[in-house]
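Human:
Care to share another protein and its fold?

Assistant:
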Amino acid sequence: MGMFDYFRSSYDLGEKFTNVVCQTKDIEDGIGGTMTDYWLDPSGQLWCPDYRGTNTYEVIEKDDPRYDPNKLFLNFEWIPTGQHGKFTPLYITKYIEVYPESWKGEWEQWPRLKLHFRNGQLQDFEDVTHEREGKYSWRITPQTGTTPEQ
């Protein structure tokens, strides 16, 4: 089963996907997900969190009363720096599939959306909910709006 990432969109992807917590396993190659939060802004730019500089650590030495001999590699303590994480643009070029975190209905009808990014900018997206049945719903391009397919 594996882990997944969270995906939220302020870009209008339709009521089932806009301002709704979604999941994906497609953003991080080879991993399948690390429970990271990604955000698509209203202009179609993809963002990811950056926590660099928010913590440092202190190694707990053997003569320290906090030292635990049962922890061979974990004798350290995280120290917050007072800095906060921030979102930075994620410049990926690929297709990802997202689906709402919660769905009340048959799994075959669980809404799924395929998004196409180029250098982190949304190029187009399509509803692939009924792809398993060989049916095609619709495709959207930010430049032209809805375009019928087949």
The chain has a mean pLDDT of 86. Residues 5-51+86-147 form one domain. The chain has no helices and twelve strands. The longest strand covers residues 94-100.
